[in-house]
């Protein structure tokens, strides 16, 4: 077994791996960017090394710097977590060349499954059912249109060959949408995976997203740990996961479990991995393989009792799996909610910022995997995840009630999160009926009802009013009273559960960046902080309400900004490639003069 492991990641997954190392008696080494100097994973590890500036391309994606730290610290193995370099075959090969064990599959398996087109072709030849579509990259829009007309039909999914995690996934419902979908998928593939090639799949409008957890060792043993349902998604990125899947019975579980183990065995897999698929009308289709530990591995751990991270470490060290397939039993039901720094009411716009007070829920059957604490910061440079909240109980209904209880206990101030969204969705009839909830997640009107309370208006910006909670007793009975007024010098309970700034301290007066718009109805402010990726209009253009104006990249997501009204672009003080802050003016749109 290893004596020291370097974790080439950050945030909650780095903390998760460090905890596993502690329990296995293995020393841990953290790496961090300049932005993460005070991060939880840095403080938790036995050793920590700075590897570069904030941008991931200059730190967490620098293979040379990570290998240098591994040699300097004496780490015998590297755990990549998920994201960053986790599915990078070149990184796995570089580790091997440096004499350092990569905790994951061999580079050949990552290569085989890393390209979605190659994986689809491999699975098709192995007899594994795949979603109808292409198994070769599609060169251009013209070729795509020809293939769709001949074999696939609309609606169609355009997907980046090297994609994953919802990146590089666009849908064209009609021919009119194909060019934009093709361009968007290729652009995200190039940006996130350095691969602009795309392929096509038939788009299934409302399937269940069901995936199977596999484990494999170096001795040829491959097992599965049952399935997870990850159907609740926004922009093809997961929000809520559960195990077991509500629509899967024991017969189907055996069927898709065999598909998963056959797929892993076909590429001589080692470690923890996931076969993702789509389930519709009782038919299961292979989608892709994630050659790493998944974000949602926790729900499987809760229902099987198997520590997936430890099994991956043991497999990398050459040890056999500690369990056999016949030993795997699913007990009860587990649910995971991703607590992201996002505003659901604004179509899940990223909402980075600094955390004020922070207290995680606890009690029977409650687990929190997080990488933050009081005063921590969710940076726009990285993923918007604050934490993962996982609960277990005897059945789905009981687990739902436990999750609602845990969500109500979660206290986060001065940061907007998805806690109100999760609370609202889990209380709906759709969730209770185990539907995909796609109609709710895409219902902008329903989402707007989850809007955070607006800041309390104040005549004097230098003397802001805030909402504070006090506890009083009347005739021996305890009451919580909310008071809106000037901040109390002694502090108070800020707004909780990701409901926005607590406002306990005076803020400096900010200059308006209205571009001359004056903040009126003509002015469209940016809903988020990020980088201006694309600007699609120019001054003087006439636009319709809902027309695409620009694309802002924030927290590893592309966010399309549309016109809030019809009119003429009077001002557009934005530039491609430049940073933009929340509240900065994107455009000033003047209504056309009324016809005489």
UniProtKB/TrEMBL annotation:
<dbReference type="Pfam" id="PF02785">
    <property type="entry name" value="Biotin_carb_C"/>
</dbReference>
<dbReference type="InterPro" id="IPR000089">
    <property type="entry name" value="Biotin_lipoyl"/>
</dbReference>
<dbReference type="InterPro" id="IPR011054">
    <property type="entry name" value="Rudment_hybrid_motif"/>
</dbReference>
<dbReference type="InterPro" id="IPR011761">
    <property type="entry name" value="ATP-grasp"/>
</dbReference>
<feature type="compositionally biased region" description="Gly residues">
    <location>
        <begin position="492"/>
        <end position="501"/>
    </location>
</feature>
<dbReference type="InterPro" id="IPR005482">
    <property type="entry name" value="Biotin_COase_C"/>
</dbReference>
<dbReference type="GO" id="GO:0005524">
    <property type="term" value="F:ATP binding"/>
</dbReference>
<dbReference type="Pfam" id="PF02786">
    <property type="entry name" value="CPSase_L_D2"/>
</dbReference>
<protein>
    <recommendedName>
        <fullName>biotin carboxylase</fullName>
        <ecNumber>6.3.4.14</ecNumber>
    </recommendedName>
</protein>
<feature type="domain" description="Biotin carboxylation">
    <location>
        <begin position="1"/>
        <end position="446"/>
    </location>
</feature>
<keyword id="KW-0436">Ligase</keyword>
<feature type="region of interest" description="Disordered">
    <location>
        <begin position="492"/>
        <end position="531"/>
    </location>
</feature>
<keyword id="KW-0547">Nucleotide-binding</keyword>
<keyword id="KW-0092">Biotin</keyword>
<dbReference type="Pfam" id="PF00364">
    <property type="entry name" value="Biotin_lipoyl"/>
</dbReference>
<feature type="domain" description="ATP-grasp">
    <location>
        <begin position="120"/>
        <end position="317"/>
    </location>
</feature>
<dbReference type="InterPro" id="IPR016185">
    <property type="entry name" value="PreATP-grasp_dom_sf"/>
</dbReference>
<dbReference type="InterPro" id="IPR005481">
    <property type="entry name" value="BC-like_N"/>
</dbReference>
<keyword id="KW-0067">ATP-binding</keyword>
<dbReference type="InterPro" id="IPR050856">
    <property type="entry name" value="Biotin_carboxylase_complex"/>
</dbReference>
<feature type="domain" description="Lipoyl-binding">
    <location>
        <begin position="515"/>
        <end position="590"/>
    </location>
</feature>
<dbReference type="InterPro" id="IPR011764">
    <property type="entry name" value="Biotin_carboxylation_dom"/>
</dbReference>
<dbReference type="Pfam" id="PF00289">
    <property type="entry name" value="Biotin_carb_N"/>
</dbReference>
<dbReference type="GO" id="GO:0004075">
    <property type="term" value="F:biotin carboxylase activity"/>
</dbReference>
<dbReference type="InterPro" id="IPR001882">
    <property type="entry name" value="Biotin_BS"/>
</dbReference>
<dbReference type="InterPro" id="IPR011053">
    <property type="entry name" value="Single_hybrid_motif"/>
</dbReference>
<dbReference type="GO" id="GO:0046872">
    <property type="term" value="F:metal ion binding"/>
</dbReference>
<dbReference type="InterPro" id="IPR005479">
    <property type="entry name" value="CPAse_ATP-bd"/>
</dbReference>
């Amino acid at each position: 077994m290893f004596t020291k492991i370097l974790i080439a990641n950050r945030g909650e997954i780095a903390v998760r791996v460090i905890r596993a190392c502690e329990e296995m008696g293995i020393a841990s080494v953290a790496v961090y960017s300049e932005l993460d100097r005070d991060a939880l994973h840095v403080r938790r590890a036995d050793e920590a090394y700075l590897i570069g500036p904030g941008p991931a391309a200059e730190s967490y994606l620098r293979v040379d710097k990570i290998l240098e730290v591994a040699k300097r610290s004496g780490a015998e193995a590297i755990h990549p977590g998920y994201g960053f370099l986790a599915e990078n075959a070149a990184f796995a090969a570089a580790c091997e060349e440096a004499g350092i064990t990569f905790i994951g599959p061999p580079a050949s398996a990552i290569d085989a499954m890393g390209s979605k087109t190659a994986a689809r072709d491999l699975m098709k030849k192995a007899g594994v059912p795949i979603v109808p579509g292409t198994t070769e990259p599609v060169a251009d829009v013209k070729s795509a249109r020809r293939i769709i007309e001949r074999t696939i039909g609309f609606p169609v999914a355009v997907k980046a060959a090297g994609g994953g995690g919802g990146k590089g996934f666009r849908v064209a419902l009609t021919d009119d949408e194909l060019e934009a979908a093709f361009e968007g998928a290729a652009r995200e593939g190039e940006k996130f995976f350095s691969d602009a090639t795309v392929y096509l799949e038939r788009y299934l409008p409302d399937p269940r997203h069901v995936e199977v957890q596999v484990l494999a060792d170096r001795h040829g043993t491959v097992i599965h740990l049952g399935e997870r349902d990850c159907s609740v998604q926004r922009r093809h990125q997961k929000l809520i996961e559960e195990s077991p899947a509500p629509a899967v019975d024991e017969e189907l579980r055996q069927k898709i479990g065999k598909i998963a183990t056959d797929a892993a065995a076909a590429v001589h897999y080692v470690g923890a991995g996931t076969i993702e698929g789509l389930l519709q009308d009782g038919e299961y289709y292979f989608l892709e393989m994630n050659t790493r530990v998944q974000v949602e591995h926790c729900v499987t751990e809760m229902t099987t009792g198997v520590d997936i991270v430890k099994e991956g470490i043991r497999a990398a060290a050459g040890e056999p799996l500690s369990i056999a397939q016949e030993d795997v039993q699913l007990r009860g039901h587990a649910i995971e909610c991703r607590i992201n720094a996002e505003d659901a009411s604004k179509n899940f716009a990223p909402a980075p910022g600094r955390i004020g007070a922070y207290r995680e829920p606890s009690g029977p059957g409650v687990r929190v995997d997080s990488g933050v604490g009081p005063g921590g910061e969710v940076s726009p440079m990285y993923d918007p995840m604050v934490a993962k909240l996982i609960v277990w109980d005897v059945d789905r209904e009981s687990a739902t009630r436990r999750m609602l209880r845990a969500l109500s206990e979660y206290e986060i101030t001065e940061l907007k999160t998805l806690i109100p969204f999760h609370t609202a969705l889990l209380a709906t009839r759709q969730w209770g009926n185990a539907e995909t909830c796609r109609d709710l997640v895409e219902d902008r009107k329903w989402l707007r009802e989850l809007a955070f309370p607006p800041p309390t208006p104040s005549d004097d910006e230098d003397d802001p009013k805030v909402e504070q909670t006090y506890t009083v007793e009347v005739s021996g009975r305890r009451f919580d009273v909310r008071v809106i007024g000037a901040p109390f010098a002694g502090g108070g309970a800020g707004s909780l559960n990701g409901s926005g700034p607590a406002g306990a301290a005076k803020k400096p007066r900010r200059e308006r960046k209205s571009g001359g718009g004056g903040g009126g109805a003509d002015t469209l402010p940016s809903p988020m902080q990020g980088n201006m990726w694309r600007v699609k209009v120019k001054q003087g253009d006439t636009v319709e309400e809902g027309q695409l104006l620009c694309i802002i990249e924030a927290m590893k997501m592309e966010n399309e900004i549309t016109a809030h009204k019809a009119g003429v672009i009077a001002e557009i003080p934005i530039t491609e490639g430049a940073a933009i802050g929340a509240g900065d003016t994107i455009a000033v749109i003047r209504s056309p003069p009324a016809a005489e």
